[in-house]
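Is pyridoxal-5'-phosphate placement plausible here? Inputs below.
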Amino acid sequence: MRIIDLRSDTVTLPTQAMRDAMYNAELGDDVYGEDPTINRLQEMAAERMGKEAALFVPSGTMGNLVSLLTHCGRGDEAIMGSESHTFYYEGGGSSALGGIHVHTVPNLPNGMMEPEQVELAIRGQNIHFPRTRLLCLENTHNRCGGAVLNLQQMATLTSIAHQNGFPVHLDGARIFNAATALGIQAREIAAQADSVQFCFSKGLAAPVGSAICSSKAFIQEAVRVRKMLGGGMRQAGVLAAAAIVALEQMVERLAEDHSNARILAEGMMNLKQVHVDLQSVQSNMVMFTLANRNLVQQRVLAQLAAEGLRVSSMDTLHLRAVTHYGINSEDIALALEIMNRVLG
Ligand SMILES: Cc1ncc(COP(=O)(O)O)c(C=O)c1O
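Reply from A.M.:
I modeled the complex. Tokens:
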């Protein structure tokens, strides 16, 4: 049976071109800075983000953690959205491993935070308070259903941080999805942040890895932090080779995922048992709820899976379907047929 896996864009498998590039990659010891493929990828990543330098890390979680630990010391405070991936899904790493005090501000359904709330979260000079050292943004926004922040929204929040003398880190795990949705270059979004982390291993379909991009001085310190966390890898060019192909060949096609998500959401509007807000579908994710609260979510997931469709549960209310490389328009039609059988 064909399984249509819409749980996440992290389920993507590497392309043949990636496998070939991995096999043929020129390698060296990256802890000595001597892996030519890693060095090339880092130059490309920095150039794509319009930053001075970049650092390859094994995951998006480590990309965010290294960035936070580079920006903040123990007891410093980082402001971030209450629904942000860093707050919600990264094991509390910044506090467990870095002693960073997290101050959450509610995320609005569109992924934004109220500027006034961000301002209110900033600490004044007072011996009772931790020091506010960082603002974290996320674009596209995972738990807000792939919502896209536009440049104006980002600039509003960034300027609050900068006016108050502290930097901005962007969790741009899916920054190329945001750029595709906005019809702009990723570097225009990255320009709104002092450091940015983006992933090769989601919609871009590489098997492993993320990049942190920022100033030379920041990346120099981040190299030390990555080593401390055990993220210094040796002949990691085998991984970077696939990530290079991801940057060169997989960015343009993200528009196809967005259009498939739209078609899926439009089809889901006809399902009696499903609530989906078309306006909220801005990139490659469709967040939806079950109209009848008596339907048991886990049972619905199991029924869909039995028919060959996998979607994920975000919490007790929200379900999510994500389009990605490997999912075509016929799969979307089939997914809708299955949903119709189970939830029509
Ligand atoms: C917005 C966002 N940031 C960070 C991550 C973490 O990436 P990884 O799973 O590579 O650690 C994810 C993963 O889904 C994500 O969606």
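Short version: The chain is about 40% helix and 15% strand.
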